[in-house]
Predict the structure.
Amino acid sequence: MSVRIRLARGGSKKRPVHKIVVADKRAPRDGRFIESLGFYNPLLPKDHQDALRINAEAAKKWMSQGAELTERVQKLFALVGLAEKPAIRETPKKSAPKAKAQERMREAAERAQALKEAEEAAAAEAAAAQAETPAE
């Protein structure tokens, strides 16, 4: 039986609260689970003491027995120091802007750079003109 440590959603509409549970991989998200390891409240600030509570001993026991972590749980465990932070996945090339959009972005960046250089040149000329005029 493959076991996963994952989040089970609770709470009311638009007010989520998640339980961190050990469940069979095939069980429904909010369905049957083997053990509850803690809870996570995403609405609270990250530094709040009630935002994340984990039973570290039980989590280490399940991980040593081969329980897989979902990506979100791995991020939460990394905050506490129970697991490594997951690697950042590259976004697919399919979602990148197309050729025309990339050209427009490049042109906008060039215009912004030219405007910045013109402002710097005008500022330098003004400073030089002010330095040439004698102070009375």
Q: What stands out?
A: The chain is about 40% helix and 25% strand. The helical segments are 56-64, 71-80, 99-132.
